[in-house]
Amino acid sequence: MIRLQNLTLQRGPQRLLEGAELTLYPGQKAGLVGANGAGKSSLFALLRGELMPDGGDSQMPPDWRIAHMRQEVDTLERLAVDYVLDGDETLRRVQAQLVAAEQEHDGVALARLHSELDSADGYTADARARKLLAGLGFSNEQMELAVGSFSGGWRMRLNLAQALMCPSELLLLDEPTNHLDLDAILWLEDWLKSYPGTLILISHDRDFLDAVVDHVVHLEQRKLTLYRGGYSAFERTRAERLAQQQQAFEKQQAQRAHMESFIRRFKAKATKARQAQSRIKALEKLEELAPAHIDSPFDFSFREADKVSSPLLDLSEGTLGYPGKQVLDKVKLQLVPGARIGLLGPNGAGKSTLIKTLAAELQPLGGHLQRGENLVIGYFAQHQLDALDPKASPLLHLQRIAAGEREQTLRDFLGGFDFRGDRCDEPVLNFSGGEKARLALALIAWGKPNLLLLDEPTNHLDLEMRLALTLALQDFEGAVLVVSHDRHLLKSTTDEFRLVADGRVEDFDGDLDDYARWLVDYRSRQQPAAAPEAAADKTDKRAQRQAAAALRQQLAPHKREADKLEKNLSEVHEQLAGLDARLADSALYESARKDELRDLLARQAALKVREGELEEAWLQALETLEALQSQLEANS
């Protein structure tokens, strides 16, 4: 187990932990939450042995292997799949020793090392690494590219895959979802649920925490408090505790009245039944949990637009993409005041392309895009953080777009985004990603937009800022079009979804649970054996019946393939058993029979490789069969 007793941890002059206590048992999955700068990453460094406690005691089993997600990449020439395999240090050690033993013709060492390689699942390592990469959104072609050819966000995905590849008893993940889209997050959730070791996870994605962890460790006022359950359970427990404090009563009641008023207004005009009900439930949950965020440093809203046009934007028969590359076709989208639309779709399907076109960063390749006379767009995308002036302060950034406004008014406004005192006057150069994102949102909020185009607005934001953004979007009177991997934000701020897939933008008549099921179906239809025409999503009854018929036709060949693979695997097992019996003969290791031994070991190595390939293919075939069978049952 992990046991921290009376622990004190200090970095420079700042004391992060003082008299802290924590016990985590093997197999527990804990989310580590707390304000930025509270010491979460320093606690990870302590557990990894990179820091020593300044007082108290930190205990952990000495034989535990620790895996963690690195924040840097130093081997840019390595192929992506090899870089991920490097995460398994035992595998790499045995492989290096095997090469040396083969060069020295050391038969005894070869036999021992092949046994170690088998124990480390070395023969299936390449297939497992590729499965991790596929789950995190890498194509087969990308797996063979050099690490240096990827952008920073994709390199972080490689670091995550490398951490997952490492056999471990303790897995430490610091913001693993920051550079993932919703598809990859859903895959990672399933992977972590089945992880058998102890997991400590730092994340600002509340739905992700709820899905993965069974405990929450709250770092607050230099203490560690362990709560049972996921993040929502932590919120409820903390809300109950804070609600009992008299000094919180007034703010709690004001927040509750505000939420009740908004829910009443929203219920009166809700139109999209299923998604509207999902949003109402999310709002009612926010109302219940409002006291847990009484001490939030964030409190802001989007300033009301001076004028509004209807429609704000009208795109018809749009062909969107880049010169020489069409991404979306026949796009029809009208945005009117009050519209709340979330964009869903697989990675690379064109969600950002659509938003960039609406924001005028891209010109349509075809069709007609009409902009309202009084349209004012507030556009947020990650690349805009780099466009901030590194030498300018938050106050100067705001003064540049608010000429003539009183300085105190601007300081008060920036205070709602937690830029207070000297922080208002410091240059952006050394700001964190979260601080830059907050400043970009502050500039948008000041500009009185009537249409918000938000492309992953929660990246780098902590849980309190995400909640403040959610509340601000609920009060916003204009239109919102948002792409986000934060499911809580989507559930709380959107009324309807559009699905971007297979070159089209279509209505999605469902909620995020339906979308998760759609993704399973979509992925199964992306298998090489799937018919190309099965790639288009259809949600009406007729299309479901057609899909079920197609799936039934697909079952037969997959069943035959699985049976064939199982038979071949059985034959390989018999051959390996025969070789093992021959290799058990001690006389075989005499010098006179070294050539015979070398040949037998080579045959054994080749068969084990073949065994690993067949096992992976057989398991994949069984998974495909199971997925197809589930679809048949769902559509019957």
TrEMBL record:
SUPFAM superfamilies xref list: P-loop containing nucleoside triphosphate hydrolases
Signal peptide: none
SMART domains linked to this entry: AAA
GO MF annotations, alphabetized: ATP binding
Coiled-coil regions, chain positions: 548-582
Keyword entries, A-Z: ATP-binding, Coiled coil, Nucleotide-binding, Repeat
The protein, known as: ATP-binding cassette domain-containing protein
